[in-house]
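User: Could you check the structure of this?
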Amino acid sequence: MPLQGATRERFWKRSVAEPLWTTVDPVLSAPFKITQTMKVATAGSCFAQHIARHLKNSGYNYYVRERAPTCIHPKVALQYNYGTFSARFGNVYTTRQLRQLRRNRGSLGMRLSRPHWRRDDVAKTLVAIALTSACSSVLPATSKQQVGPNLESSDGHRACASPPVWTISGKVLLEPGCIFTSTVNITHSHTELDCQGSVIDPGSRKGYALHINSQGQRLTNVTVRNCIVRNANAIGIVVGWRGSDQAKVSKYDREEIYDRTPHFIQIINTRVEASKGAGIYIDDYVSDVTLRHVAVTRSDSMAIYLEHSSRRITLEDSLFEDNSLVKKREALAIDSSAHNVIRRNIFRRNKAGGIFLYKNCHEHAAFEAKQTERWQGSDNNLIEDNHFEDEPVGVWIGSRQSLDLRKLRCGDPYYGGKFVRDKARENTVRSNSFLRVTKGVLIEDDENAVVGNRFRDTREVCIRVGSAPRSEFLGLPVVGIKVKYNECDLGIDVKSRQKAVPLGIEFVHGSSATR
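Assistant: Sure, the predicted structure tokens are below.
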């Protein structure tokens, strides 16, 4: 019997119902204490909901594994059980039920093969919004037309007065429901901009729609939230110290450049749509930036660019869809940027692919004063729990290792007449899902790990390790790769290749891996 020999306080009748109420002590000793740094998840019924609410209100680290897409209003998200528990599994009444749920879904919040479970015997079926399709159906379509005075856009926003160039500081709340046809600058620390759902649409104005610019002075603790940035004539949002790279390095040492460049920046619950350049640009030496609940769609170039020497950028719970409409680029470019965390995002239908990691070859070194030699590779990045769908390539590590780079006039030395050594090492690609991608993960540099990923309906290959030029000209095959616990399902059109490509994983040009 499970309760045989259990102490008095384990029984409701003995410890609560029978004793005099003034003698009941609900506080017991425990073998450990929960600290505010521990992740705490909840599962249960109404009592677990109350516990979750009190944990959040008391400053504890309440762990929510399954967050609502950025495009869903908080009230709607609550109706579909986002944030009620640590994942949207509904009420759980027994440990056996929780164990069954864990077995069916994997880790908390793992995406299902279908968007919801349905019980026909329940009168009111709660249909969960599919995380991989919600934003594309909810995000409103927008046009490039600039809205004039006293006119409304198709989604109900109205034009509101603002200066052509708007520099803000302190805590700023924009009027809800507005379109501001300004370019917005933030140049002071401890600034918080809350757009409250309003739109920044500079239209034909030159420059960046929103620029967090340190101007070579210390700029820290800036938050931008609840904004919609549309139709930027260049880049949607820029975080950085814009200027000549060579001038910076000739005047300051590396750590002082970091200190004079924006750090501890947050961009939360913000959409960037239809930018002429990249959606969001994190410039060189920017550090400690969090992008959370961000959606970047229909940019002419990349959705996100992490420039050289940037570090510790966290990108989570966001959507990157239908980008690089003009330039054939990836959604997320990690260029000589290190120690970043990319997790729980959706990458869908971007022109060249999802995430590319590489080291710029010091391109156009003799012709552009802005360029300096890259001193770090795209190293020590964590890519986990993301979803890649309908991408030509999901993740490409060392994406410039085998490309002809003669047109870039690189400052780094060439080999084989047209190739340059790329550097992207000690990166981890873990627990991601790939659906209908042509190539899942390509690895062309050493010491990287691909662990616990799931590939479904893959069109060509799930994982490929190796670089032909590096092996042929330098005699250096790709080595030190860890490939473990991945599930690969090749699409019907490539099933015939399965014998030649065991489990959809290729090691080419002398490469090797730990399996």
